[in-house]
Amino acid sequence: MAPDIFKIRRDKIARLKELGVDPYPLKFDAAVSIQDALDRFDGPDAETSARLAGRMMAVRGKGKTAFVDLRDRTGKIQLYFRKDDLGDEQFEVFKLLDIGDLIGVTGPLFRTKMGEISIHVESFELLCKSLRPLPEKWHGLRDVETRYRQRYLDMIANPDVRDTFIHRTTILRTLRNVLDDKGFIEVETPMMQPIPGGATARPFITHHNALDMELYLRIAPELYLKRLLVGGMERVYEINRNFRNEGVDTRHNPEFTMLEVYQAYGDLRAMMALTEEMVAACARAVTDDTKVTFKDRKLDVTPPWPRYQFMDLIREHASIDPADPAAVLKAIAAKGEKTEGLEPLQALDEVFDLYVQPNLWDACFVCGQPLAMTPLCRAQTEDATVADRFEPFAAQMELGNAYSELIDPVEQRKRFLEQVGDEAVAAGTGKIDEDFLTALEYGMPPAGGLGIGIDRLVMILTGSPSIRDVILFPLLKNK
After folding, report:
1. Among 3, 323, 388, 422, which residue is least crowded by beta carbons within 10 Å?
2. For residues 43 and 40, what is the distance between their CA atoms, to the nearest angstrom?
3. Distance between CA 113 and CA 101 in Å, rounded?
């Protein structure tokens, strides 16, 4: 940007002050939204005047008249400025305005010869003088990383971006409404934890100076929420921020939002019904339908969702016996992926990702994963090697995870030791949440637990191809 732009705009600010205009006033009273003004003009109780505030997005005209496009969070309206109406001094103030400035206007509504509802401005106020010019929509914001890094410009130039985040709020509100109506209580649990638990992931580590202790940003709130079931809060949920010190791609961000729900005396089946109901309600709230469009393809989230078995899907799509480790590794290699160092369960999960997941488009449940993959889940009654678990999938993405919860404290301790390793625990390098095990020893009711990735759900329901499109300020490398 040419450095004289700042000087030109600073000079304008100086001139405005000479004219007695505050370029950064305190407030602007009694403004309605642009959409409200448009609706009222065409409504049964038609209003003939409006008082609006917004950002100038375009200026047309020369001499003694001008047309301005004004935009706020709800839409755009045309303003008509005329020197004969405003007077010399006010029109001079108008001439000192630029695209990007925030203004408030008052005047009658009318319809132009072209049929466009506009405001004939009788008075206006400068609400904020911008020093930087806005980028051109198709040139200044073409770079995707710039859009993410300067989200404020992205939203100014692309109103549909704002709409995405408004839809995100609608989705969160809908989830809360469904759960609140069913008697669930929203709670908050610690984001800094002495032991990272509830999931397997690399945590972010921090240090509390006053207590001189190492803490971890939570990777999941699960173990704290289950403590609440022990304490008698039988239906709880948390919409929480989790942190995992891992990779970044179109589906992963180190900081992300999850919904976790726990229902005492429920199980996996209860969580399935709840998942279907919540996702369908969110789809209707955003699109008025349970069939949405993602990546130019129809996606159906209409209940009931089909149930598939994890091992059956691998047999079908990878054409191998999932119980044969050699066949599993061979299938991975056939896709050009490395197999060195993969544990058998990791390899099985990799085969699922490579062969099965690309075929899961419409919403469905994948059930019956090996128990060893899920240390916090109870086994199926009919097969102790299989977890009573499901993962919801849609648009080739895993949306979450759900269990019939393990409530046996002796078995839970055994699983933790297997996961961490006896030697690591003895050496102090592996940590087990002893307080959680103590809570289980007091007795936790049978329960179903569910986690849903909010960011991915918003992606699907708003047609956003990247997780960065639905996180206001995604993590980016320093420039």
Report:
1. 3
2. 5
3. 28
